[in-house]
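[audit] Reproducing an earlier prediction to check determinism. Same input, same settings, fresh worker. If the tokens differ from the archived copy the diff job will pick it up downstream; this log only records the rerun itself.
[audit] input (376 residues):
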Amino acid sequence: MTMPLLISALRPIPRALVRELKSLQLRGPRAKEAAKPVLSVLVAVAAATILNLDDLSWAAFSGYMVMRGSVAETFPRGLMRIAGTAGGALLGLLLAPRAADEPLLLMVFLFFVSWIGTFQSLATKYSYAWLFFGLTAGMVTTEALASPDSVVHFAATRMTEIAVGTYACIVIASLFSDAPSGKKQPAYGMLWCGRMPDVLNEDWLREHRPLFEHSTRAALAVALLPLVWRWFSIEDFSQTAITSYVVMIVPSTAVWERRHVTIYERMAHRTLGCLLGSAVALISIGLFGTGLPVTVLTLAAGVWVGYHIQTGQEINYLGTQFTLGLLITLVQGPAPITDIAPGLERLLGIAIGSAMLCLMILVWPLIEEKQYPDEH
């Protein structure tokens, strides 16, 4: 069932992409909204360059991903991104020393942080913070496998990059008048799902069964990745783990209603979006070189188009991944681009992470709602 569902998810994308590109507006509210993440990314990259940070792409990612239609939405989102990153980095630093020399412990730790991050992101109001808690804890922990001596530097640099990009985003958002939004702002009042003594007891498991199964499947896909890394001698671990983890962060309603097609759509959109974004960046490099003016123009145009698609009606997640694929290829460090490997590594990592998820789904199939007995 996996391959037909993936093909079904891919089939409508070309026409949807054409429709979204035709809807691009050079003027009006949508054009103004798209200008905000463009400015935010440019400011974030400039600030990270001045601070001489190692990987400017994470600052650029934050400058793009935190932006929302109003400061009232952007500010708490930025705080959650920073808080989740800081908490995950601290936990990763605690786990990393043991994971460096114990592959089995590494797998246990990856399962633990991925399960918590996935479940809490689906079950609580602070979903964005929990997403980055699990993501960062996993990245810092796996850094111990790649480079044990640089774990502290990696964690500190990542926290700084996220903070710089987030702050740039909030500053830019505050310069614009808020866009009208029909969404009701959530009351961020629940940090943890349920009281600690109640978690994992029989009643709790019965009540949260869909979320529990979904989170366990995602955590297993991430935890088994060290076997893939060792088997194929993979040295860049982050993108495979990120994909297996992030693809499973779907709207909680999709999990409760067991609309599993959403997972396949995210796989398809993530892979194709990254491919398109990286391709646009590589074509620009091939045609116009890596000079600063053309790089800035390509970056601005790509982010502007990607944000239009992200805020469109049909393939939002593809627009997000298009922009991130473009950023990781064009934004590497303070010096001019000399290597196209980061974009290719991200694409390869996405492919491996998606393959691991598909394998997990084959072993532990997704079950539609009608196959479950009535539990409520």
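[audit] rerun output stored. Observation attached for the diff report: The CA atoms of residues 258 and 367 lie 7 Å apart.
[audit] end
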